[in-house]
């Protein structure tokens, strides 16, 4: 059976933590759709197109990974794509409560779609897009958190905003 997985998120910007989840998902599932959330609620640094463009470049070498975006309910999008699985990463207990609630709600809305959690890679457990933006905003080094291409984009945005 071909298993299609959707890996949703803000990816503002993509980090080594996200890429680790993409890499591992690509080995487990036949097709992985990295879906950038077009949510208006969040204060974002990058536009959806910019986030998608970065992800496209970073995942070029994976033949079974594609980049897309979605608006509205994740389960509607997953259904639309014929996906069986939603992939989420777990970093800490603090992630758990929200993820637990979302997974249950999504299961209620779409019983045929399952949420699969991947434990963060040990080296990436402390990385989040917010931390990247915060450190970069104060002029700190983000080399260990994001690929060089993302670093350039973050610094460019921050310079522009100042
Ligand atoms: P969201 O706004 O949906 O939380 P994020 O871009 O912050 O979007 O994260 C997308 C997914 O990637 C989430 O499931 C999150 O837990 C996971 N993730 C983010 N950073 C890491 C990391 N360092 N290690 C493992 N998973 C991560």
Question: Any overview of this molecule?
Answer:
The protein has 162 residues and is of the alpha/beta class. It has a single domain (4-125), classed as 3-Layer(aba) Sandwich (Rossmann fold). It is 44% helix and 19% strand. The chain has six helices and five strands. A five-stranded parallel sheet has the order 3-2-1-4-5, with helices on both faces. The longest helix is centred in the middle third of the chain and has 17 residues, at 93-109. It is globular, with a radius of gyration of 16 Å. The site of adenosine-5'-diphosphate has 16 residues, from helix 1 and strand 4. Residues 9-11, 15, 17-18, 21, 88-89, 91, 95, 120, 124, 127-129 line the site of adenosine-5'-diphosphate.
Produce a short descriptive summary.
The chain has 162 residues and is an alpha/beta fold. It has helices at 16-28, 48-58, 74-80, 93-109, 129-137, 148-161, and strands at 4-9, 31-37, 65-70, 85-90, 114-119. The protein has 6 helices and 5 strands.
Number of helices: 6
Please, what is the oligomeric state? single chain
H and E order: EHEHEHEHEHH
Number of strands: 5
CATH superfamily grouping: HUPs
What is the fold-level CATH name, i.e. the topology?
A: Rossmann fold
Overall mean confidence score, pLDDT: 95
Please indicate the percent range of residues in DSSP E strands (runs of 2 or more).
15-25%
Major sheet characteristics: 5 strands, parallel
Helix content: 40-55%
Measured on Cα atoms, how large is the radius of gyration?
A: 16 Å
Contiguous low-pLDDT stretches (5 residues minimum) are: none
The secondary structure category is alpha/beta
- Assign an overall shape: globular
How many structural domains in the coordinates?
Answer: 1
CATH top level is: Alpha Beta
CATH architecture: 3-Layer(aba) Sandwich
The small molecules bound here are: adenosine-5'-diphosphate
Give the neighbour order of strands across the main sheet.
3-2-1-4-5
């Amino acid at each position: 059976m071909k298993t299609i997985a959707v890996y949703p998120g803000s990816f503002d910007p993509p980090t080594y933590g996200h890429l680790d989840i993409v890499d591992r998902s690509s080995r487990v599932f036949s097709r992985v759709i990295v879906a950038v959330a077009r949510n208006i609620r969040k204060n974002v640094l990058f536009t959806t197109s910019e986030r998608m463009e970065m992800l496209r470049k970073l995942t070029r070498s994976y033949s079974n990974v594609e980049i897309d975006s979605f608006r509205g309910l994740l389960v509607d999008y997953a259904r639309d794509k014929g996906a069986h699985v939603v992939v989420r990463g777990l970093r800490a207990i603090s992630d758990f409560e929200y993820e637990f609630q979302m997974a249950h709600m999504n299961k209620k809305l779409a019983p045929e779609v399952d949420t699969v959690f991947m434990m963060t890679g040990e080296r990436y457990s402390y990385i989040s897009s917010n931390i990247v933006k915060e450190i970069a905003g104060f002029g700190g080094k983000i080399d260990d958190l994001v690929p060089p291409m993302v670093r350039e984009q973050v610094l460019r945005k921050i310079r522009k905003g100042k």
